[in-house]
Amino acid sequence: MAVQSTLAKSALSLKYKEGVDTNGKDIMRTKKFTNVKVTAADQDIFDISDAFTSLMLYPVSEVLRSDDSMLPNV
What we know:
Strand content: over 45%
Distance between the termini: 11 Å
Number of strands: 3
Number of helices: 1
Number of domains: 1
Order of helices and strands: EEHE
Helix content: 10-25%
Strand order of the largest sheet: 2-1-3
Shape: elongated
Structural class: alpha+beta
């Protein structure tokens, strides 16, 4: 029998460049927003990320959606 997963939780992460260190390497940070509805459409999450991006001090380089699924253990 094939295992079927159930979506348990979702999160939105915004990755941004905060600056450059003394060696000239980019300092990358991530701001994670948890408790995103698992039923939220990708477009809706992207639209929200646009709103958050306009409020952030640094430019956002990546928008990530993370989904965790539950696998039954029966």
